Automatic annotation (TrEMBL):
The protein's name: Lipocalin/cytosolic fatty-acid binding domain-containing protein
UniProt-annotated stretches for the region Disordered: 54-74
Lineage: Eukaryota, Metazoa, Ecdysozoa, Arthropoda, Hexapoda
Species the sequence originates in: Dendroctonus ponderosae
Cited Gene3D superfamilies: 2.40.128.20
Amino acid composition bias (Polar residues), ranges on this chain: 59-68
InterPro entries tied to this protein: Calycin (IPR012674)
Length: 129
């Protein structure tokens, strides 16, 4: 599977603006933007694991899963795969948060999108290590 592997963050595009517009305090959003955390993705059949320094996400393609975020809030996520694009949609009480993982060669782009009006997309771009 094209996604399986370890990735190193090489740049952010609009992450700070995305997080702040989505309601995260500026100081916390700045810490997230400045954190150059690696990302690891494992795909085994319909089972997907996405790990970084945050909580491990265990997902099953096309099935809703429940997780608890670092802030203690419970949310539900559904993952779907279409070629080299993995989409994870998480539902919160106030909005949906979509992450689009797209692989091109040795580069992985993660686009973060909110259903809240006026929130710009943010991107994290990684290289396979």
């Amino acid at each position: 599977m094209a996604f399986s592997g370890k990735y190193q963050l090489i740049k952010n595009e609009g992450i700070l603006e995305h997080l702040v517009a989505n309601g995260m305090p500026v100081e916390q959003a700045q810490k997230v933007e400045d954190d150059n955390q690696d990302l690891e993705i494992s795909v085994n059949g319909d089972d997907i694991k996405i790990s970084s320094r945050g909580p491990l996400q265990n997902l099953k393609l096309n099935q809703e899963t429940t997780a608890t975020g670092p802030d203690g809030k419970v949310f539900k996520s559904t993952a779907s795969l279409n070629g080299d694009v993995l989409t994870v949609v998480s539902s919160f009480s106030s909005h949906e948060w979509t992450r689009i993982y797209s692989v091109s060669g040795s580069e992985l782009t993660v686009t973060s999108r909110s259903s809240k009006s006026g929130v710009p997309d943010g991107k994290r771009i990684y290289k396979r290590i």
